[in-house]
Amino acid sequence: MKKKQFAVIGLGRFGGSICRTLSEQGMEVLAIDIDEDRVNEFASIVSHAVVGDSTDENVLKSLGIRNFDHVIVAIGDNIQASILTTLILKELGVQHITVKATNDYHEKVLKKIGADQIVHPERDMGERIAYNLISNNVLDYLELSDKHSIVEIVASERLDGHSLLELDIRARYGINIVAIRRGTNVIVSPLASEIIRKGDVLVVIGADEDIDRFEEKVV
Ligand code: ADP
């Protein structure tokens, strides 16, 4: 597989964490920040770290930003700089742009100017933690749309020893179990004959209301 090339603009907590993880995963990362101290901090972590103002089109051009597969704009509080940077990246024809939004107004503008992916780290993490707090059985949650999700649910005593066929989950609840995690083992696309054990992590996909019904009745 061809190594993907990433550029991360803004090395605060969010951008910094993205840089570290991408580098740990062996990805090529160009880190850019206007602050020299931040850049020095990342010099030994990423492939290249440079000081630069991303609102200056010439800076981005001279870095060859157009050739990167994916650019992440992680400028926090300076909304104006975040918007201007995204606009320039878009105009330069960058393939895929992910931007951190600070509030709804910021998100609206980013959508209008064509950011491919907009993330709200604090809000999204808050939602995840809230789901965890509500249900002891829900480990993780990924929103697919405002009505559909993928949820990781821990199988309770009630499911223990029953096969997927017996439980007939798809017909009864309209949801699908796409994988089962059992210890370090992952069973992808489990067969109908698969027997569920207490403590298995069920990776479930479906409409939110159907997943809720399943959780209430069975888990
Ligand atoms: P977080 O909330 O993720 O910690 P911060 O607001 O602390 O975010 O960090 C944003 C980073 O973006 C800072 O390191 C800041 O120096 C950098 N930054 C702000 N404006 C620009 C710009 N125009 N060009 C490059 N980097 C910038």
UniProtKB/TrEMBL annotation:
Q: Which domain of life is it from?
A: Bacteria
Q: Name one GO molecular function term.
A: monoatomic cation transmembrane transporter activity
Where does the record place the RCK C-terminal domain? 136-219
The RCK N-terminal domain covers 3-119
A single GO BP term for this record reads: potassium ion transport
InterPro entries, sorted: NAD(P)-bd_dom_sf, RCK_C, RCK_C_sf, RCK_N, Trk_Ktr_HKT_K-transport
Q: Which PANTHER family match?
A: KTR SYSTEM POTASSIUM UPTAKE PROTEIN C, POTASSIUM CHANNEL PROTEIN 2-RELATED-RELATED
Query: What is the designated name of this protein?
Result: Ktr system potassium uptake protein KtrA
Q: Which organism is it from?
A: Parageobacillus caldoxylosilyticus NBRC 107762
